[in-house]
Design goal:
The chain is an all-alpha fold. It has helices at 9-12, 21-50, 61-83, 104-111, 119-136, 140-143, 149-172, 186-205, 209-212, 214-228, 235-239, 257-286, 292-311, 321-330, 335-349, 352-359, 363-385, 392-410, 420-426, 430-443, 453-460; strands at 97-99, 317-319. Strands 1-2 form a two-stranded antiparallel ribbon. The radius of gyration is 23 Å and the shape is globular.
Length: 470
């Protein structure tokens, strides 16, 4: 979309430049479309894990609508923290904030089957984790040495692997439906498959906004197909209020050791992700390295945006990497464009009927979308790992961290005798893998005795016995 009618090359690389409104508004909405599905999906997943009913007659259904609504509203607020800034708060760059997938593997064990009352524990973790995230802004740059691509790539990959099961369950009919005759039916997979096929088709064969919004359009098509098949109920939309303000401490707040440790640990990972996004934006959009002030301001805004979200019943926020790629594609570095997108999100967050429409999406349709999104998280992690020098040392670190992290996640009963808090943290998989990788990366020498990666692989190969008759 970059052309002379938007501005000169020098203007487009200036974060303080404001394009003509006729161009700035659609560019801002494009940023919203790129992150919209990813932003509201965590709220649906967490509510589903807690046991909220997905039917409009469920007493918990309005609570899910509220959390979706707050996901939009506070993504907009956190984005304004970044784009406009207040004092040391904010990078004053076109950074789009949204609900983070990274925290889902931590949140699900904390709320699993416990109903709406368990959300108060999450909110306590979100607030404390957000404040800790903001505190990291004071020295985040000095900690990057402990998080090379080996560690960050492993963590991102583990996040995706922890989520893919949820995507399959949703596509088959949803977690509450496991064990029923409808679970895994051809109808369920047809709706999910429609989303996947449309998303892939647009991703590979479309350009511009059609490609950027491929998952969103795939969900819309899947929604239309589900409606035609009689699988959509709009009763909740008619019952939803036309306008509603955020409600402080809507779910209450409760402080749990497990939640606080888990959220603080993942806040550290999220902070590093934000540093990478800021660096990518300045390098790709302005052709320069990010300043210490920008990185510090972005981390402050990331953390404060999360803490404020928790006070009003929303989930943790982080910078959205897909919007970094969008800036590189459009060539427009203007923070005013992102500010307009943030205002659009805030308006959507004030209209519960929008949340009700989103919550009316059949779980199978949503499953088709999240299968693609969670797969992309794994792919992003593998892409980060491609920068690793795969010598024997790094292979050993990766092998041990992945085996223990993924293994404990798949078989949580292996730690059944641990205290409840430690069990939740250890069996999340992500924290275990991250901690092992960070410690081993700091402790192990650069050159392990015994040769390179090829020698290590050769030593692991089991050769079959020779057949003397051949």
């Amino acid at each position: 979309m970059s052309d002379a009618s938007i501005g000169t090359p020098e203007q487009l690389r200036d974060p303080n430049y404001t394009p003509p409104m006729a161009k700035a508004v659609p560019l801002g909405i494009q940023h919203v479309l790129a992150m919209f599905v990813s932003n509201v999906t965590p709220a649906i997943i967490v509510c589903g894990a807690a046991g909220f009913g997905f039917g409009s007659n469920s007493p918990d259904f309005p609570q899910m609508i509220y959390m979706i609504q707050m996901s939009m509203f506070f993504a907009g607020v956190a984005t304004l923290f970044q784009s406009i800034g207040i004092g040391p708060l904010g990078a004053r760059l076109p950074i789009v904030q949204g609900t983070s997938f990274a925290f889902i593997p931590i949140m699900i064990p904390l709320v699993a089957g416990k109903g709406v009352d368990a959300i108060a524990v999450l909110m306590g973790g979100v607030v404390v984790g957000g404040l800790f995230h903001a505190f990291l802004g004071l020295f985040i740059g000095k900690l990057r040495f402990a998080l090379p691509p080996l560690v960050t790539g492993l963590v991102v990959t583990m996040i995706g692997l922890a989520l893919v099961k949820v995507g399959i369950q949703y596509a088959a009919g949803g977690v509450p439906a496991i064990g029923t005759e409808e679970y895994g039916s051809g109808l369920n997979w047809f709706m999910a498959g429609t989303v996947i096929v449309v998303t892939l088709g647009l991703s590979f064969f479309a350009r511009g906004m059609l490609s950027v919004s491929a998952v969103l359009i795939g969900l819309v098509v899947g929604y239309i197909v589900a409606f035609a098949l009689g699988q959509v109920s709009l009763e909740s939309v008619s019952r939803a209020a036309p306008f509603a303000l955020p409600n402080p401490l809507h779910f209450g707040i409760e402080f749990s050791v497990a939640a606080i440790i888990g959220f603080c640990a993942m806040a550290f990972v999220s902070a590093v992700e934000t540093v990478g996004d800021v660096s990518a934006i300045t390098k790709g959009g302005a052709g320069r390295e990010a300043t210490d002030k920008e990185i510090q301001g972005a981390t402050f805004a990331d953390g404060l945006g999360t803490a404020v979200s928790g006070l009003f019943g929303a989930l943790p926020n982080t910078s959205f990497s897909q919007n970094v790629g969008l800036i590189a594609m459009t060539g427009v570095m203007s923070r005013m464009v992102v500010t307009l997108g943030a205002l659009f999100l805030i308006i959507c967050g004030l209209i519960p009927k929008i949340g009700a429409v989103i919550s009316s999406i059949p779980i199978e349709v949503l499953g088709g979308g999240v299968i693609v999104m969670f797969g992309m998280v794994v792919a992003a992690g593998i892409s980060m790992l491609s920068d690793v020098n795969w010598n024997r040392r790094n292979m050993v670190i990766f092998a041990i961290a992945l085996s223990l992290g993924l293994g404990l996640q798949l078989e949580p009963n292996a730690l059944q005798y641990l205290p409840g808090t430690l069990k939740v943290l250890a069996t999340s998989g992500i924290l275990t893998a991250a901690l092992i990788a960070i410690i081993l990366n700091l402790l192990l020498p650069e050159d392990l005795p015994g040769g390179g990666a090829e020698d290590a692989l050769a030593g692991m190969v089991v050769h079959p016995p020779k057949d003397e008759h051949v």
